[in-house]
Amino acid sequence: MLVSMANTNSKTAEKQTLDQVFAPGGWLARHHPKYEFRPGQLEMAESVAAAIENRQHLIVEAGTGTGKTLAYLVPLLRSGLRTVISTGTKNLQEQLFYKDIPFLKKLFPQMRVTLMKGRQNYLCRQKLYDIEKQPVLDGMEQVEQYPKLREWEGRTETGDRAELRWLPDASELWKKVDARSEACTGQKCREFERCFITKMHQRAAESDLLIVNHHLFFADLALRQREYATLLPDYAALVFDEAHDMEDVATQYFGVEVSNYRVEELARDTEATLRVKAIKSNEVLTAVGELRRRAELFFEFFPPSEGKSNFDHRENFLEVHRGAYSALTNALMLLQTELSRVPERPEEINNLARRAVELRAAFELVLEGQERNMVYWWERRGRGVFMQATPIDVSALLRERLFEKVDTVVLTSATLAVGGSFDFLKRRLGLQNAKERILDSHFDFAHQALLYTPLHLPDPRQPDFARLAAEEVSHVLKATHGRAFVLFTSYAQMRDVYERLRPRLRYPLMIQGSMPRTELLDRFRSTPHAVLFGTSSFWQGVDVQGEQLSAVLIDRLPFAVPTDPVTAARIRQINEEGGNAFMDYQVPQAVITLKQGFGRLIRSETDRGILAMLDHRMVRMPYGRIFLESLPPYRKTNRLEDVKAFMRE
Ligand code: SF4
């Protein structure tokens, strides 16, 4: 697929070689006050340009400080092809769009770039107007917020909620007015021409470069699979930044989920649409009531204990509860029938009928599907019961739908290689032919970081571990004067160690869950000597530069929980196919996670500090060598005195 954009960029930009842009005294040096020549950056830019030129795929591991965003942006923009960048987070998406792109405008004055997020980030004008006609606002907060939204709707160019700093993350009002596809009537909508989604698609179709995130990208790829309307226009080259997340996000979008919440959402949206559209239909309301009742009876059969469980015994479950299950799917069918009978029904009602059909099909897939490559499982979280069908291996899907369809896919991140090889990544993602590069970091890790692995602690699976680990954490924190992240692989272990240290340490201690994540990070940044205790959500995507973060301590090697239904199914599949799941899957996955976790410490050339791994298996077990060989060349010790001396230096 070759998608070329006519007359894209200025002659100046096209004439400049990559050398002239990146070399000392080149365009970047003249235009960027802080620019510093980094050979790795130029090497990466050349590799990306060659991959586009030769229509090849490319994997590049480029550590923090390589300047990888410019290294892929410049060759993409020079190519004159329509290209896509997919980032792991919305934050990185915005940083590219609002910081790097405006800077590069001087070099590529005619470039057209569109930022695209998932539909739920944008306002639906029609829903906003409908609310005015038929007030469905709950509580004072929504009543106060509504006029502010109306006023903003009149002046915003994009309709992107990121412009609304005052809107709480979990705003109930926003859920009533966002542009998610379930309630969108598309071309039949009166506002279609003015719609923010339509405008975004138009801009995208005329753009050289689209900036999306992995969630939007894989939602699009899954839609293409189902041959529905796609979200992204065709493109010739694609860069995944933070590509270490790809398998997880792809798995999420190629799977199917049903839940009591999804049933309730359909019931609630149906009632709201009847209200907003002033439709009186007792038949539909009765069908909604029936659906709620049947769902409640059905979901009651799931035990109350929190957590994930395998659903291998679906046949037995259905044998016992067939009646309740049929009653639920019949209730969905009844709702669909009653909605289709509404006279002179608006498109919104057809939409709801379609959703009832889709939900019924999803229930059938999750409860009766027999796909070999799917693992079926369920989970209780609070009052929610979620049933899932998740692909065990997405490699064939990605090979067929992505790597064989797009000329050039570039995968980049600071954490892709395991023991100097990309085999794990390529196997999991189904990527066969790709050029490979591991770029030397710009940081001097041997001087900037000391990796401390105390050998006197017991195995982390021993009952005494938490007590002795807490002791060790306190010694390290005293040497670093707090200023640390203490990261855990489990919530229980985090709480245990935190409670042991709370009365003993004089530093301000903060713990995940005590306030929203961004607030916690802001507090950490602004509180001298703070120590933050966290689990998985702090292992990646967190950037704290300077002395404020002088140590990262990790309790144990971050192996995925082997009883997790998806992990267990992957382990089983690899072993059944004659592989060694521990070495082929569990170790490499833990290596990548550990590289992410330790990667929090050194974020700039002047950062320095301690990395502590309290799990001695990294040194004592034969497989520990793979972890050690995969990490940057930190200085290493197992003596606490060296930690103290390093901090005194
Ligand atoms: S086209 Fe869809 S998203 Fe856009 S205003 Fe209409 S209903 Fe809302």
Could you characterize what this model shows?
With 649 residues, the chain is an alpha/beta fold. The chain has four domains: 205 residues, 3-Layer(aba) Sandwich (Rossmann fold); 74 residues, no CATH class; 136 residues, Fumarase C, Chain B, domain 1, CATH 1.10.275; 204 residues, 3-Layer(aba) Sandwich (Rossmann fold), CATH 3.40.50.300. It has 27 helices and 18 strands. It has a seven-stranded parallel β-sheet with strand order 3-4-2-5-10-1-11, sandwiched between helices. A seven-stranded parallel β-sheet has the order 14-15-13-16-17-12-18. Helix 5 crosses helix 6, helix 14 packs antiparallel against helix 15 and helix 23 crosses helix 24. The longest helix has 28 residues. The protein starts with 10 loop residues before the first helix and ends with a helix. Bound molecules: iron/sulfur cluster.
List the keywords.
single chain, 649 residues, alpha/beta, Rossmann fold, Fumarase C, Chain B, domain 1, 4 domains, 13% strand, binds iron/sulfur cluster
Brief summary:
This protein is α/β, with parallel strands linked by helices. The chain has a 7-stranded parallel beta sheet with strand order 3-4-2-5-10-1-11, with helices on both faces. 41% of the residues are buried.
